[in-house]
Write a structure and sequence with these properties.
This protein is α/β, with parallel strands linked by helices. The protein has 6 helices and 6 strands, in the order H-E-H-E-H-E-H-H-E-E-E-H. Helix 1 crosses helix 4 and helix 2 crosses helix 6. The longest helix has 21 residues. Keywords: Signal.
């Protein structure tokens, strides 16, 4: 094993020792990579690592990848990362985000109820022809993999006095890697305007959910329940930040009016 891997094994051993017997729960804490909210009040509690734009350049729709996402159902992750990416896209302020998923279906249903005479006529705000077009579409791609690193680490620890007692715990160590991509398409011309990739690799110690790597906990859209979800969310954050560097070079398109807000200082 190389000196770098030996050093890594010793670092894992130190973290295995520090993880023993520690358990705590703190609401709103955890060093989240993706968290917070976005809306008329702006981005609240967004990740410090999230790269942003000074102003939106166009309207954007998130599109499900027709080929699906490469991770096992045994990880019990959400079926789609699109809601997570939608949160980041809105928090970054690079685009105005339009809904082409559940929100659109609800809008269509309301229109059907109006046409059927079920909804009130006076003061009804559901009208045809008011929807905003998506000037760009963003399609995510994801590959997640897991490798057994415990045996290699265990063989190093076995030869080190005082650390050889951690060999059993080291057998639970897994290397988790996620590679994410974001593809941006101009809906007017069908040209792929930009593409960005992001990747994260960490060691899952298998002890109290501890992980080695620049990651921390990930909250938001159901990706905080497992180490696999945390790795995937961080990879998409990395891909998003790479994409913003390209988006900043786009000339802004004509945007529709913003949603009405309360007057400044209103109740």
């Amino acid at each position: 094993m190389t000196p770098a891997r030996c050093l890594f094994a010793v670092s894992v051993a130190a973290l295995l020792l520090s993880a023993c017997g520690k358990s705590s729960t703190s609401l709103g804490e955890g060093g989240s990579v993706v968290t917070g909210s976005a809306g008329p009040a702006g981005a609240h509690h967004a990740a410090r690592e999230l790269v942003r734009c000074d102003a939106p350049v166009a309207t954007l729709a998130l599109v499900e990848n027709p080929n699906g996402y490469s991770y096992s159902s045994s990880y019990q992750l959400p079926s789609s990362p699109v809601p997570l990416i939608r949160l980041m896209a809105q928090q970054s302020g690079c685009f105005r985000v339009v809904d082409r998923a559940a929100g659109l279906k609800a809008t269509v249903r309301e229109q059907e109820l109006k046409d059927a005479g079920i909804l009130r006529r006076e003061g009804n705000t559901v009208a045809k022809g008011k929807g905003y077009e998506a000037q760009y579409s963003l399609t995510p791609s994801l590959t997640f993999s897991e490798q057994d690193a415990g045996r290699q680490i265990g063989s190093v620890l076995q030869a080190i006095p005082y650390l050889n007692k951690l060999v059993g715990a080291a057998e639970h160590v897994k290397m988790k890697q996620a590679q994410a991509a974001l593809l941006l398409t101009d809906n007017e011309t069908t040209e792929q305007i930009a593409a960005a990739t992001g990747s994260v690799e960490v060691a899952d110690l298998g002890v109290g959910g501890a992980m080695v790597g620049k990651l921390g906990g990930v909250a938001g859209a159901g990706w905080s329940n497992s180490n696999e979800g945390k790795v995937i969310a961080a990879a998409f954050l990395d891909a998003h930040n790479q994409l913003v560097a390209q988006v900043r070079e786009l000339q802004a398109k004509v945007l529709p009016p913003e949603v009405a807000k309360k007057p400044s200082g209103g109740a």
